[in-house]
Amino acid sequence: MTAKIEVVRPGVFATVQDLGRPGLAAIGVGRSGAADRGSLRLANRLVGNPEGHAALECVLGGLVLRFSAPATVAVTGAPCSITVGARAAGPDSPISVDPGDELVLGTASRGLRCYVAVRGGIDVSPVLGARATDTLGKLGPPALSAGMTLPVGRPILAHPGVDLAPRAPLADVPVLRVTPGPRVPWFVPEALSTLVSSGYAATADVDRVGVRLDGPVLSRARDGELPPEAAVPGAVQVPPSGQPILFLADHPVTGGYPVIAVVEEADLDLAAQVRPGQQVRFRLV
């Protein structure tokens, strides 16, 4: 009998995510996958899964799951309270779950996205080789809703034999390293230095596609718009308003606004944890 997980409450927004669909941009399909890829990888390692197994990504916690069979889970990403049955549990460590137990995530105290991996992985049907929910491309399983059941796969690796994976706390003001983008000449000479010397705040317009930022205007040196050109995760696009938009996991594969800078791949996990109202800074490398 296949083990099942029942979604009792999905919280604010929760999806199934893995490491996405790389290599399909030429046919209009973005990579998608976990916004904070490091947290997904760690959660899977803690329960003895391959790093790319499908897990759950939830915004600000609030997720409640009920298990039909014994399981081992791990919760990583944005820190939140965790209970299993009547027992408190800790993040970044394997957690044993008994049949009938409910796993309850409290509200995240900082950061934005929590990850829940279960030993064996979330075994929904793959689409184009991945189980990730692409919210922009409308691919993969639907967002979680109350009453939904999720199948659990069979374990294929041994238990890792660890009790805890210590992690540094999320920064109050994350610093994201950037390289100059392909369209710096579209801006006035001081625009790039303005971006990397000023603080920007995440607006309420934050989702898996990207983060719209508010701060000093990045002024253009020329008018008009670009023909659509390829876009990448971490691209900092600047619309006519002069307020930058940072692309995340479900970004479009093309865009028409000029890209002034690109966040380093290694810092995209930090970007994925920026919540509305939080300050962020950029550093040129």
Structural overview:
With 285 residues, the protein is mostly beta strands. It folds into two domains: 4-151, no CATH class; 175-284, Cyclophilin. It has helices at residues 37-46, 191-197, 268-272; strands at 4-9, 14-17, 55-59, 64-67, 71-77, 82-84, 87-89, 95-97, 102-105, 113-118, 149-151, 175-180, 199-206, 210-214, 229-230, 235-237, 245-247, 254-255, 259-263, 279-284. Strand 16 (235-237) and strand 17 (245-247) form a beta hairpin.
What is the average of the pLDDT values? 95
Cα gyration radius (Å): 20 Å
Q: Could you list the spans in which at least 5 consecutive residues all have pLDDT below 50?
A: none
Quote the beta fraction.
25-35%
Question: Total number of β-strand segments?
Answer: 20
Protein name: Allophanate hydrolase
GO molecular function: ATP binding; hydrolase activity
Keywords: ATP-binding, Hydrolase, Nucleotide-binding
Brief rundown of the structure:
Helices cover 8% and strands 31% of the residues.
Label this structure with key terms:
single chain; 285 residues; mainly beta; Cyclophilin; 2 domains; seven-stranded mixed barrel; six-stranded antiparallel beta sheet; 3 helices; 8% helix; 31% strand
